[in-house]
Specification:
Blueprint (H helix, E strand, L loop, with lengths): L1 H17 L2 H4 L11 H20 L3 H21 L5 H5 L2 H13 L2 H21 L6 E2 L11 E2 L7
Antiparallel strand pairs: 1-2
Helix pairs in contact: 3-4, 3-7, 4-6, 6-7
């Protein structure tokens, strides 16, 4: 049921913004459209905070960060036509898995779901010819511990 609700919300948001989509290509001076890098930077921050909240078993905070991360992904797809909505929709099983793990307060399932989400993020980056942006499950609580900075193929 949650999957259906998520997809309906995504469709409704897309429909509500479809009329304005043409204007987004050339924003007027009174229309703010965040840069894609800013949206993705916020998503990366949410990814790390989601991991930290889950690791600390702060399930309420984890649920909040997951909702915020979903909103970032929807914004990216709505504001930037170069990101196929299908790329965001393919993340839904991982997002649902995380939501279920948070609801169950299950750290093991949470870790698995975060790994699946991370894999999905990287698959999207590869499909958009941005494979040099590699997100990883954080290994520590340092800022940007959820990104690999060495070139692909080097640890």
């Amino acid at each position: 049921m949650k999957l259906r609700a998520w997809m309906l919300a995504l469709a409704a948001l897309g429909a509500a913004t479809a009329v304005a989509a043409q204007d987004l290509k050339t924003p007027s001076s009174d229309q703010y459209v965040p840069r894609l890098g800013d949206i993705m930077g916020a998503a990366q921050t949410r990814h790390q905070k989601l991991w930290m909240a889950g690791k600390a078993q702060n399930w309420e905070l984890a649920a909040f960060e997951l909702r915020q991360l979903k909103a970032n992904l929807v914004e990216a797809a709505v504001f930037y036509s170069g990101i196929p909505i299908g790329n965001v929709a393919t993340l839904e099983p991982a997002l649902q898995s995380l939501s279920d793990a948070i609801d169950a307060k299950d750290g093991r399932k949470f870790a698995k779901g975060l790994g699946e989400l991370t894999d999905g993020c990287n698959a999207c980056h590869r499909s958009l010819k941005r494979s040099f942006v590699v997100i990883k499950v954080p290994s520590e609580q340092q800022p940007f511990a959820n990104q690999q900075f060495a070139p692909t193929g080097k640890p």
